[in-house]
Amino acid sequence: MLGKIEHLGIAVKDLKQANDLYTKLLGRQPYKQEAVESEHVITSFFTAGENKIELLAATSDDSAIAKHIEKRGTGIHHVAYAVENIHAEMQRLESEGFTLINKEPKKGADNKLVAFIHPKSTNGVLVELCQEIQE
């Protein structure tokens, strides 16, 4: 089952400008900035109460974030949900008729295994599943 909303992902063109804006908006600095080479993005994470905001800036013109911004502009990119067992949740969702973008989870930002559900099967919302990596 899907757990709490783990974070909201927001696509941005200029990470420095967006960091400055969200620092003013939320009244705090980002707690982490991290490159995710496999996705060609740099992420920046903020807390907002018990919630998290992930800013995503493309490092390549052919990244999913660059393509998203080109088609839809900046703004909310995805909603991420925490899961305890990402493999089991992926199987459950696929059996319910959802289309998975990833057939296997991959390492994402903020020490998570991640997988995405195609927005065509979720009323236009890109959904990310996130499982904390236990080390």
Automatic annotation (TrEMBL):
UniProt cross-references to Pfam families, sorted A to Z: Glyoxalase_4 (PF13669)
EC number: 5.1.99.1
Alphabetical keyword list: Isomerase, Metal-binding
Domain VOC: 4-132
Gene3D superfamilies found in the cross-reference section: 2,3-Dihydroxybiphenyl 1,2-Dioxygenase, domain 1
Lineage: superkingdom: Bacteria
PANTHER family to which the protein is assigned, alphabetical: METHYLMALONYL-COA EPIMERASE (PTHR43048), METHYLMALONYL-COA EPIMERASE, MITOCHONDRIAL (PTHR43048:SF3)
Gene Ontology molecular function, alphabetical: metal ion binding; methylmalonyl-CoA epimerase activity
Enzyme class: isomerase
GO BP terms: L-methylmalonyl-CoA metabolic process
Family: Belongs to the methylmalonyl-CoA epimerase family.
Protein name: Methylmalonyl-CoA epimerase
